[in-house]
Amino acid sequence: MQKPILEFWSRTRKKLTPDFSHLHPYWQLEIIRYCENGYLEVRERILPLEKPMLILIPPGLLHRFHWGDPPFDSFSLKFRLEYESSFSDVAAIPEAQNRVAAYFGERLMELLDTMNPGPQDPQGRELLEYLLMVLVDAMLGQREQYFDLPDWLKKVDRLVLEQRRNLSVKSAADFFHWTTVQLEYRFRKTAERNPDLKLPASLKCYIDQKMLALIDKYLLYTELSLNQIAEELRFPDRFAFSHFYKRLKGCSPGSISRGTLFGRCGKPEQKSSGKQLRGDPGQLLPSGRLHDSGKRD
């Protein structure tokens, strides 16, 4: 069980303009308290919104809410999970079907009733995150698709985010005060004992995969140029960056359709007329890209 990192939350209680199909890099928990004739559209499926109901949406999944007839009342929480989950589809659970989720969903709504959306005091935020942790774990556990990485491999993930392209097997071994042989041996044993993790053949391949996923997030969720992305991720230059990407993905980063789900190869890069953004992917524009303020337009 891992404690989520809450990014922001909101409440829907008034008439809205029709929602648009969108995706984002966050996990989303939607708690439907009251809704009539509403539904969720995801992967060409229609899911009626019941009351009360809990809906968990993984990051990168295109979806659209239709809120139906007022009145309605719903809480939406966006959060991150630091480590891996194989969960890739919507989990929608009427509260009557999961007593644990129903209980903690009620406690979470009671707490949110006393708070205003936006930045929270540290104690209030921590309480929200712990309630969210139990609730999400109950929902993911019901689907039996949740897994966690060993602690030492979680630290490797953190090193990738911190050191980016500067991270190597040697520098990771130095961090743990092991030799590279010891580190690679531990990685192979972890892969053998945990086949559900579907780890690659070597730790170097694992680090490269994490870097590739990070690059895809920059290509999808920012308007940085390729030179800027190369600099942000600490590649020596754009050519080294492009060579790395093409070696792993089979196409150059310049051929990626910017703003599509995890970037599809085949469309030349087009220059953006918008303001170029720097920093870590996270906050969204209506188009699915980032905005400096972090507020949805």
Descriptive overview:
The C terminus is likely disordered. It is globular, with a radius of gyration of 21 Å. Helices cover 37% and strands 17% of the residues. The chain is an alpha+beta fold and 297 residues long. A hairpin with a 2-residue loop joins strand 3 and strand 4. The strands form two sheets. It has a five-stranded antiparallel beta sheet with strand order 1-7-2-5-8, with helices on one face. The chain has a three-stranded antiparallel beta sheet with strand order 4-3-6, with no helix packed on it. It has two domains: 139 residues, Jelly Rolls (Sandwich), CATH 2.60.120.280; 105 residues, Arc Repressor Mutant, subunit A (Orthogonal Bundle), CATH 1.10.10. Helix 3 crosses helix 6, helix 4 packs across helix 5 and helix 7 crosses helix 8. The chain is built from eight helices and eight strands, in the order E-E-E-E-E-E-E-E-H-H-H-H-H-H-H-H.
